[in-house]
Amino acid sequence: MGIYRCAACGSPNVMTDTQANGVNYNYLKGAVGTVLLGVGGAAAGIASQQQTVYKCPDCGMVLTYPMSAALADLIDIGVMYPKARSQLKIMNVDVPWEFIEKKYKNIDPEEQEKRRIEQEEKAKREQQRLAAEKSYVDEISKILIEKKIQMQEEFNHE
Asked: Could you please report the per-residue DSSP string of 74-115?
């Protein structure tokens, strides 16, 4: 399993990154810089802050915190040992595996792959259904146009 899990979807594919988190001013460094270098030395007290962020490629979330270690460990145990799923606890409180699966959609990479395949098959069936429906509509339109032409010809002959 990954080092971190996404707090939003439970995916173990979380990556860490750093991003700027504003500017901080250290007055002591600024005062020393001013004494040594004059007014321009005050800039020595400026420091940018970096913040660690956790990016999930599966759900697209960028969070400032990962899933708690206790919950991540619980999920890892449930993924690795399916028989243990009925005995999962956090701080002596039973946690039903069904609740975890419902709340965190990307906890198991194998299940993710199965869901992806199912979604692709569903999309393919929907495309086939739409193509059949379009064909049916085209056929009905053709019949209606022929009928209209026939009725116009009959009307013109009278």
From this structure: HHHHHHH-GGGGGG-EETTEE--HHHHHHH-TTS-HHHHHHH
